[in-house]
Structure formats: C-alpha cells, structure tokens
Design brief:
Strand order of the largest sheet: 2-1-3
Helix content: 10-25%
Number of helices: 4
Shape: elongated
Number of domains: 2
Number of strands: 5
Structural class: alpha/beta
Largest sheet: 3 strands, mixed
Radius of gyration: 16 Å
Distance between the termini: 21 Å
Length: 147
C-alpha cells in the first residue's frame, strides 16, 4: 500500500488483509494538520498494491472515496466496484461487473458465460481466458476483483 499526500510519513506501508483506509493513514504516521479527512472514506477496505491519497484542505477530490490520485495512479473506491471490497467474480451480476473499468455490458456477459461454461473462477488470472480481456485489462481489474 502506498500512502501519499497529507500524512506525516508518506511511503509504502504493509498492512494485514482486512485493513481500512484509517489503518493506512495511521501506518503513514497519521494525517497532517492540513489534511482533509472528511474527503476520505476512512472505513473503506484497502487493497494490496493500491495508493491512498490523503488530500489537503481545499484540494478538489475527483471520484473515488480515497481521495485524488496523482496522474497515472489508481485508487479503487466505490466508483470502481463495490465499496465494501473487491467484486467477487463467482457471485457478481452483469450489472456489478459492468461497473468495473474496461468492462462494459458485452464483456460482463462474456464473464458470466465463461462462468456458466467452466464453473467458478479459481483465480483472478482465469479472466485471461475470457474473450475480450487482455493483459492490460486484467492488470487494471486485478485489484478490483476476487474469487
């Protein structure tokens, strides 16, 4: 987990599975006095490999509950999958899958069709077998989905 922005000690922190944004902020030395913690969903579960950006007061917060991400980074949040955690490939509906980046209605249906034909996904890497999901899409989806 990479914690940046208005924290005392920005950088990479290690957290146990099931940790939340508040744990990531604490592990990075806590928020600074100019942090806008109200812009974060401190209760959101964090995902391995994601970046949590703690905005400063007055910073505009684009979509997502973890705060703005510097260019080129991804901050999974409610806008990308389920706010309670990753989307389960074995139980998700087409509507839930359609909320994922790079997955539209046709790819969502292909994921459901693959699941119907092959049984449950054993690993996230099984997505590679779904027509229309290439390496770039798989990498974008990896932190947002689970089995």
């Amino acid at each position: 987990m990479h914690v940046v922005g208005a924290v005392a000690a920005p950088g990479v922190v290690e957290l146990p599975a099931g940790s939340r944004v508040t744990d990531a902020v604490t592990a990075a030395g806590s928020a600074t006095d100019d942090a806008d913690l109200a812009a974060l969903n401190l209760a959101r579960l964090v995902l391995d490999g994601e970046q949590v950006y703690v905005p400063r007061a007055g910073e505009e917060v684009p979509g997502g509950s973890a705060g703005p991400a510097p260019p080129g980074t991804t901050v999974p949040g409610p806008a990308e999958g389920d706010a309670a955690g990753p989307v389960d490939l074995n139980t998700a509906t087409a509507t839930e899958l359609d909320t994922l980046p790079g997955v539209g209605p046709s790819i969502a249906q292909r994921i459901l069709d693959w699941r119907d034909l092959n049984g449950p996904f054993r690993t996230v890497d099984d997505l590679d077998e779904v027509s229309g999901i290439g390496p770039a899409t798989l990498e974008r989806l990896r932190p947002l989905v689970t089995v």
